[in-house]
Write a structure and sequence with these properties.
Blueprint (H helix, E strand, L loop, with lengths): L8 E6 L11 E3 L7 H10 L8 H14 L4 E5 L4 E2 L5 E2 L5 E3 L1 H11 L3 E5 L8 H10 L4 E4 L1 H4 L6 H10 L10 E4 L23 H8 L10 H13 L3 E5 L12 H4 L4 H10 L9 E5 L12 H5 L6 E2 L15 H12 L13 H12 L5 H13 L8
Parallel strand pairs: 1-3, 3-7, 7-8, 8-9, 9-10, 10-11, 11-12
Antiparallel strand pairs: 2-6, 4-5
Helix pairs in contact: 6-8
C-alpha cells in the first residue's frame, strides 16, 4: 500500500467535458456555455472557445494535470441533478461529470490522479453506487448543493451521512461539501443558490427581500441537525473554501456577500481533525489565491492547522499574489508584446502557481500534507486480532 502521509495532494480539482464525443461521461449545457464564468474557465485552461470539443478538453486536461509538480491530484466528478423522488434530471443540470471519466483519466495519466467521486443523495441507488466507487478507489465524495439542487435540510441527508460514516470497511468516506456562495456552476433554479449556506444573517434577508426571484431561506435548524447527526455517527466533512465569500474583502464581507466562515470555524472546533469526537471536520483552501480572499489569510492561519487541506479548485482563476518586481516586469513586457492574457493569467502551470502562492502565504503549514494523512488513515488495513 502506498504511503501518502508526506505527499502533496491537490484535493480539489475540477475537470469537465462538452459532451460531443463522450456524452456518457459529462456535459456542459447550452445555457452554461453562454455564461461568462464558462468563458473565463476556458481562458484559464488555455482553450479557445472556437476549438472546444471533448478531444481538445481531454488533451489539455491531460497536459496540465500530467505536468503539474504534485504527488497526486483529486479530480472531482459531479453527479447531475436528481429529483427528490430519485429521478435523474439531466435537463436541470448545467454541468455534470461522470465518475467513470475520472477513472479513465486515471488509466491514462496514472495513479497521480485520485477519484473524487460524486453520487447524488436523492439517487435511490446511492449506497450501491457509493460502494462501487469506494471499491474503485474513491478518496472522497463531492456534493455541490446549489448546482445539484440538494437541500441539506431534507431528512434523507441524515441517512446518507450515516452511511458515509462507515462505508469504507467501517471507516468514513470524507464528504467534500461546498459551502458559501457559488458562482462557478450556477444552478438552473436561481432559488437554490442558498442551498450551500450554513448560516443566514440580517444582510442575507435584506438582500433577498429586494430580489424578484426570492432565494430559498435555509432551515438552519434542520441543516445543522443533519450535519451534526452524521458527524456524531462518525462522518468526515470537508467544507470547501472555508465557506469564504469570493468577491467581498474581509472588511466588507457582511455588507457585500454571504460568508459561512464563522460557522465553518465552529464546526472545526466542535469536531477536531484528531477524531476526539468520532466525527471530524476539515476545511479546504481551494480558490483562495485571489486578491479578495487574500484578505482572509490571517483568519485562515488562526484555524486549527491540522484541520486545513490544500487544494486549487482548478480551473478557477489563480493569481500571482507574491510576484516580485522581476516577474511584474516580465509580465509587463509580455503585455506590451501583445500577450494581453498575461495581465491576469500566470504563465506557468496553474496548479503549480496555486501551490507556490499558498506555500508562500503559509510557509511550513501542514495543510499541504494533511490530506495524504487523511487518505492513509482511511486506507489503513483493519487489524485482525491475534487468537
Amino acid at each position: 500500500m502506498q504511503d501518502n502521509s508526506n505527499h502533496v495532494i491537490d484535493m480539489h480539482c475540477h475537470v469537465g467535458l462538452l459532451g460531443d464525443e463522450f456524452p456518457q461521461w459529462g456535459q456542459f449545457s447550452d445555457s452554461y456555455r453562454k455564461e461568462l464564468v464558462y468563458k473565463i474557465f476556458l481562458l484559464y485552461a488555455g482553450i479557445k472557445e472556437s476549438e472546444v470539443s471533448d478531444k481538445t478538453i481531454r488533451a489539455r486536461t491531460e497536459e496540465i494535470l500530467g505536468a503539474a509538480k504534485l504527488d497526486h491530484i483529486v479530480c472531482l466528478a459531479l453527479d447531475p441533478v436528481y429529483h427528490p423522488d430519485g429521478q435523474r434530471m439531466l435537463n436541470l443540470s448545467n454541468f455534470w461529470v461522470d465518475n467513470d471519466y475520472i477513472l479513465d483519466l486515471q488509466r491514462t495519466i496514472g495513479d497521480k490522479i485520485m477519484l473524487g467521486a460524486s453520487v447524488h443523495p436523492y439517487d435511490v441507488e446511492f449506497e450501491a453506487r457509493v460502494k462501487k466507487y469506494v471499491d474503485k478507489g474513491a478518496v472522497l465524495l463531492k456534493w455541490l448543493p446549489s448546482s445539484q439542487q440538494i437541500n441539506l435540510g431534507d431528512d434523507i441527508i441524515r441517512r446518507r451521512l450515516r452511511f458515509l460514516a462507515t462505508c469504507r470497511d467501517g471507516e468514513a468516506l470524507p464528504l467534500l461539501l461546498h459551502t458559501g456562495p457559488e458562482y462557478a456552476i450556477p444552478s438552473t433554479d436561481e432559488r437554490t443558490f442558498t442551498y450551500d449556506f450554513l448560516s443566514w444573517s440580517f444582510w442575507d434577508g435584506f438582500r433577498n427581500f429586494f430580489r424578484s426571484k426570492k432565494w430559498h431561506v435555509p432551515d438552519l435548524t434542520k441543516v445543522h441537525r443533519n450535519l451534526r447527526t452524521g458527524l456524531q455517527a462518525g462522518a468526515t466533512i470537508i467544507f470547501a473554501h472555508c465557506g469564504l465569500p469570493y468577491f467581498a474583502p474581509n472588511i466588507f464581507k457582511k455588507l457585500l456577500e454571504h460568508s459561512d466562515f464563522k460557522t465553518v470555524r465552529q464546526f472545526l472546533n466542535d469536531y477536531p481533525a484528531n477524531g476526539s469526537r468520532k466525527g471530524r471536520c476539515f476545511a479546504d483552501v481551494s480558490a483562495c489565491a485571489t486578491p479578495f480572499r487574500e484578505s482572509y489569510f490571517q483568519d485562515i492561519r488562526d484555524l486549527p492547522a491540522e484541520s486545513l487541506l490544500f487544494g486549487s479548485d482548478f480551473p478557477t482563476p489563480v493569481f500571482e499574489l507574491s510576484a516580485d518586481l522581476k516577474e511584474v516586469w516580465q509580465d509587463f513586457k509580455a503585455v506590451l508584446g501583445g500577450d494581453f492574457k498575461r495581465i491576469i493569467i500566470p504563465e506557468d502551470n496553474l496548479l503549480d502557481v496555486n501551490l507556490h502562492e499558498l506555500r508562500h502565504a503559509f510557509p511550513g503549514h501542514p495543510m499541504f500534507t494533511n490530506f495524504g494523512k487523511l487518505v492513509d488513515r482511511h486506507n489503513a488495513p483493519t487489524e485482525v486480532p491475534v487468537t
